[in-house]
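Person: I keep going back and forth on a fold encoding question. Show me how you would write down a chain together with its backbone fold. Please set it down just below, with no commentary around it:
Helper:
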Amino acid sequence: MINVFDVLTTEKSRVNFMKGLVYLSKSQEIFEGTNEISPEEMESLKGAMQTLNISQEERVNIEKLIYSTEINSDIEFDNIKQSLFFIREGIQICYVDGIYSQAEKDMIYRMGQKLGVSDYKIKQIEDWAFEGIQWAERGDNLIVMED
């Protein structure tokens, strides 16, 4: 299994990863019509910053992005591996509510295009994520059947 620190080897790459997560989170809230990140999601983002060993100065900058009314999708990574990792994690974030809407899918493909990730590779990652969701649901059903 790939360790995040094996892919995001510099603080710059981890900060850009967090900025991308903020962008995805804020975009999802707009799709849902709430226009704000929930307290639970905010805690999740803060936890991710801590896990990624983001410096306090950069945490403050990222939190400013979270509370900003602007949405910035200008994200860059040092290499294709980092871009693929971000797209993979982004797709999983989009699937977290059990729905991968067309708007979310379009956003992922646009970001992939900006990051140099082919549509074919994004489709492979989407298929993998969907298989994982189905696998988890089958496992849940095994437990539910015992009620």
Notes: The two ends are 34 Å apart (CA to CA). The CA atoms of residues 83 and 115 lie 6 Å apart. The chain has seven helices and no strands. Helices lie at 4-7, 11-32, 39-51, 56-67, 80-95, 102-115, 119-144.
